[in-house]
Design a protein that fits this description.
By secondary structure, chain A is mainly alpha-helical. In chain A, 46% of the residues lie in helices and 7% in strands. In chain B, helix 17 packs antiparallel against helix 23 and helix 17 packs antiparallel against helix 26. Classes of the chains: A mainly alpha (122), B alpha+beta (860).
Chain lengths: 122, 860
């Protein structure tokens, strides 16, 4: 998606597709490479969501083009030194977008609770 | 299985599937995706799980790859549109050029193909052939035949399954609404078998029905008169007052021997027809299965020779078999071949133009491409972008071309003469469209993309540093562009030369001295049914009264009638009294009223015209034309001499008239004779000379005829000069077409020449600035340009004229009264192209002369 010159607002990106949000969330605490993102998403969802490589990179490409994430020029994870991996991290805009989406989901959940659709946490 | 081996295989297989992605995408993420997949496979503990993961990954690639292609395509299209929008002039000219090339080539090819190649609507049409009598000594290659000769052919031929003879006739339809004149074919019973057709309703002629009063209707009459009802079979149709039983209806597609016929009746030859040597029957034959046209021709040649030995009438005659398709197509073939060649020429010029333009543009964009490559765009990505641009040009050009082609075809149909009425059914030819589009697209890819491929791999520093000066070396060399434009001028010369020859021929044909004065003459055909007017006296009386009343109409200065006014009159061999043998060179015979020549304003050379003294019971008399007098009485006075077409009807020559070209401006003057209608009255065409507009008296004429016989229709009412115009209609049509191609060729060539010169001037601006700075004058610069143009145009024209002369040899039959090297036509060609070259060179030349040395040199 081409960037508008004035700079986009986070709300312009909402609502985020599920895969996109998952990737942003997994990059929220640290830089990760592709497989690490997949692993993180799988763990967080108890293995319910396992992206295929092509889906993952289609999402990554879109996020790079919209400047929500960026690629690191150096590799922070020496554990995988055998292969050259690409690492990604959130941009400030990406973080704001992820936060906006999280807030939106929270509001939705609150609404659902208020109407009794979701049981209140004990 | 060890993990490493599975891994290797999975990588290989996955790597192969990744090729479905766009190259740039694969370059960017392919390796990463593979790594991620391998990690995932390693994470699984069972073989089944690994297989599931692997297949899932493959499926996801299959789903995602088209999306990535679409994303890139959309990006490229947006960029291409933006670029083309910025270069509006380039885009317009390129798209327009492609469109013109595609529209012209596809349209003309479609017309040509439908005529030369497409199936005739008859089964096994290749087994049907026309059988023509030839007379090589007199240069007659397609003549009709006589009934006795038809019987002889039937008796002798082993290779021909059936001969069918037919003749045209007009008949008056009465008893169903207004009297109407129908175009009827009298055909022998074999006719429908020979052309192999089936009725849509009822049946066709039975073998025994040569004399029967039955009729087969055309689809058109069936619909028009009977509302397409199947119950029509068995009903009665009154033709010339004789009841005919309707036995069947032909399919709509049946159009033999011509279009727009109304009914087919049995031949019904009279005892006189059966024995007469008169030439009146057209013949179509069906070859036996497996017999080739060549074999049948050989047999018929042998039969003709045998008949020539047996019968004096046949001594100089031969036979020519012409396949049905050739028969229909042959009059148009030279024109179509010429037009097709012209069209290919225009298409080539169009492609060359676009090639040249793309090459120049490629050179100009070298910097951009080099910089984009240096900034990290992959070579593949850059080329893909350029390819999208080129393809878009051709898609837009192609779409416009198809639209233009359909419009052109409609236009063609509208301006086409009636003889080309089949054009109505022609539609744009799909395969040709594909070929034309393909050719154009190939040009685009070749010249729009390949040079950039090279540039994209070049060293950016060198390219950028060389600036515009270096552009000439980028892509194709300047010399190659020169060659392109030279070849363009050569092709344009050929097309323009053909158009110019055709136009000169047309002018000559229209200036031909007809030998009579066609202006202010109205003609109308009156077919008197023999059944209603069986006696010669009754027929004569009808015309006497008709002409008398017409002469009395206001505005009429003269009225006459003749059996035929324009076209080929009937002819026959004849005998001159006192000479031992019949003369085989056929003499035409026409029946005329006394005023015929006065109304047409044909000068009498010797003797007298017919008069009221020439009565049916008096001496039989004849008038001959000058050619007949010179041919058959070269050293004596024909006046008072007698001749006969057979039997005891000796006619005395009483007058000699000047030659006319009534048979058509393109035809040689034949040997002609005329007889007074009082001695042989039949159906005639009425000629009325008027003081004012001839069509103004049509209502009065109709009223006169209605008064004489309310059931008698008038047919083909038209001014004579209009009928003459129709004779040159096909020629005008060809000229119009060739002229259009000529104009297209000239326009495209001018664009080509202009863009080359503009490019050359841009390239050499620096050089010219230096020349001007060190004391050169603008005239030096102008000389430089003139030298360029002279070389290009000179070489192009010389090559083109050589080609034009060769091409003109093949269009000889289209030329009228001029040779292919006609100096006037070729001078016109040279002048037109020269003028166009000067016009195309003018703007670039002025730009070059106005170069400001200080600015140019500082700027660089």
């Amino acid at each position: 998606m081409p960037l508008r010159r004035e700079g986009p607002e986070p709300d312009d990106f909402l609502p985020l597709p599920r895969d996109t949000f998952d990737v942003l969330v997994s990059l929220a605490d640290r830089e990760r490479h592709g497989y690490a993102i997949l692993q993180d998403i799988a763990e967080r969802t108890d293995g319910r969501i396992r992206l295929s490589p092509s889906t993952l990179y289609a999402v990554i490409k879109r996020l790079l083009e919209s400047e929500l994430i960026e690629e690191l020029s150096d590799r922070p994870d020496p554990a995988h030194d055998d292969e050259r991996r690409r690492y990604y991290r959130l941009t400030p805009l990406g973080r704001r977008v992820a936060e906006s989406e999280a807030a939106r989901l929270t509001r939705l959940l609150a609404d659902a609770r208020a109407s009794g659709l979701v049981p209140r946490r004990r | 299985m060890p993990v490493t081996r599975i891994e290797r295989r999975a990588r290989r297989l996955f790597g192969a599937v990744l090729h479905l992605y766009p190259g740039s995408y694969r370059d960017e993420y392919g390796r990463e995706m593979t790594l991620v997949l391998v990690d995932r496979l390693r994470a699984e503990h069972t073989a089944v799980a690994r297989v599931v993961v692997f297949l899932g990954a493959i499926a996801a690639v299959l789903a995602d790859a088209p999306r990535q292609h679409a994303v890139i395509l959309a990006q490229d299209l947006r960029l291409a549109l933006r670029l083309l929008g910025r270069e509006r002039w380039f885009a317009t000219v390129a798209i327009g050029t492609v469109a013109i090339g595609i529209a012209l080539s596809t349209t003309v090819f479609s017309v040509g193909k439908s005529l030369l190649v497409d199936e005739l609507p008859y089964r096994e049409a290749e087994r049907a052939a026309m059988v023509w009598v030839t007379n090589p000594r007199q240069g007659i290659d397609q003549d009709v035949t006589s009934y006795p000769r038809l019987l002889a052919w039937r008796a002798h031929s082993q290779l021909i399954e059936a001969f069918a003879a037919y003749a045209f006739r007009r008949a008056v339809l009465t008893g169903s609404g207004d009297p109407e004149q129908l175009r009827v074919v009298r055909a022998s019973p074999e006719f429908f078998h020979v052309v192999s057709t089936e009725p849509v309703v009822g049946r066709l002629f039975a073998a025994t029905e040569e004399q029967a009063a039955v009729v087969v209707l055309s689809h058109g009459v069936w619909q028009r008169k009977f509302g397409g009802q199947r119950s029509v079979v068995g009903q009665t149709l009154r033709l010339d007052s004789v009841p005919h039983t309707i036995i069947g209806v032909l399919p709509q597609s049946f159009q033999f021997p011509e279009r727009d016929l109304d009914a087919w009746v049995p031949l019904q030859p009279s005892p006189e027809d059966r024995s007469s040597g008169a030439f009146w029957l057209e013949t179509v034959a069906r070859l036996k299965p497996g017999v080739s046209l060549v074999q049948a021709q050989q047999e018929m040649t042998a039969i003709a020779a045998r008949l020539g030995a047996e019968r004096p009438d046949d001594r100089e005659l031969g036979v020519a078999l012409v396949g049905l398709r050739d028969e229909i197509a042959s009059p148009f073939r030279p024109a179509l071949i010429m037009l097709t060649a012209a069209v290919v020429g225009v298409l080539v010029i169009a492609c060359v133009n676009v090639a040249g333009m793309l090459t120049a543009r490629g050179a100009a964009r070298r910097r951009e491409v080099a910089i984009r490559t240096a900034l990290g765009a992959s070579r593949r990505r850059v080329v893909r972008q350029l390819l999208t641009e080129a393809v878009m040009l051709f898609v837009l050009g192609g779409a416009l071309g198809v639209t233009l082609g359909s419009v052109l075809l409609r236009l063609l149909v509208n301006v086409a003469p009636p003889t080309l009425s089949w054009l109505r059914d022609v539609s744009l030819d799909g395969p040709m469209l594909a070929v034309a589009l393909g050719m154009a697209a190939l040009t685009g890819v070749l010249f729009g993309v390949l040079p950039s491929w090279k540039t994209a791999g070049a060293d950016v520093v060198e390219v950028v540093a060389s600036g515009v000066k270096g552009a000439g070396r980028g892509g194709l060399s300047q010399r190659f562009r020169w060659a392109l434009v030279v070849s363009q001028i050569a092709v344009a010369t050929i097309v323009v030369s053909a158009a110019s020859l055709s136009l000169t021929s047309l002018v000559h044909a229209q200036r031909v001295d007809l030998g009579f004065e066609p202006g202010h003459v109205l003609t109308a055909r009156v077919e008197l049914p023999r059944t209603k007017y069986p006696e010669p006296a009754a027929r004569q009386e009808f015309f006497d009264r008709l002409l008398e009343r017409v002469r009395a109409l206001p505005g009429v200065t003269g009225a006459a009638a003749g059996s035929l006014v324009l076209g080929r009159s009937s002819s026959s061999s004849f005998t001159i009294e006192g000479r031992p043998e019949a003369i085989q060179q056929p003499l035409t015979f026409d029946i005329i009223t006394p005023d015929f020549f006065q109304v047409l304003q044909v000068p009498l050379l010797r003797g007298r015209f017919f008069s009221d003294r020439d009565r049916a019971d008096g001496q039989l008399v004849a008038i001959i034309n000058e050619t007949t007098a010179k041919t058959h009485w070269p050293n004596e006075d024909p006046l008072g001499k007698r001749f006969t077409f057979g039997g005891d009807r000796w006619m005395t020559v009483v007058g000699i008239v000047a030659d006319t070209r009534r048979a058509g401006v393109d035809h040689r003057v034949r040997t002609e004779s005329y007889q007074p209608y009082t001695q042989n009255p039949g159906s005639m065409t009425v000629l009325i000379r008027t003081a004012g507009e001839p069509t103004a008296i049509v209502p009065a004429l109709r009223a006169v005829v209605r008064e004489l016989d309310p059931e008698q229709p008038l047919a083909r009412v038209a001014p004579l000069d209009e009928l003459i115009d129709n004779q040159t209609a096909a020629r005008r049509f060809n000229t119009w077409l060739l002229g259009a191609f000529g104009a297209a060729a000239i326009t495209l060539t001018a664009i080509g020449l202009y863009s080359l010169l503009a490019y050359v001037v841009a390239l050499r601006r620096h050089e010219m600035a230096v020349r001007l700075a060190i004391g050169g004058t603008p005239s030096h610069v102008l000389r430089l340009i003139v030298r360029h143009v002279s070389w290009i145009v000179g070489i192009g024209m010389i090559v083109g004229l050589a080609g034009a002369l060769t091409a003109a040899q093949s269009m000889r039959s289209l030329l009228f009264d001029i040779e292919p090297w006609d100096p006037f036509s070729q001078s016109v060609t040279i002048a037109v192209l020269g003028a166009v070259a000067i016009a195309a060179a003018w703007i670039p030349a002025r730009r070059a002369m106005r170069v400001d040395p200080a600015r140019v040199l500082r700027g660089d």
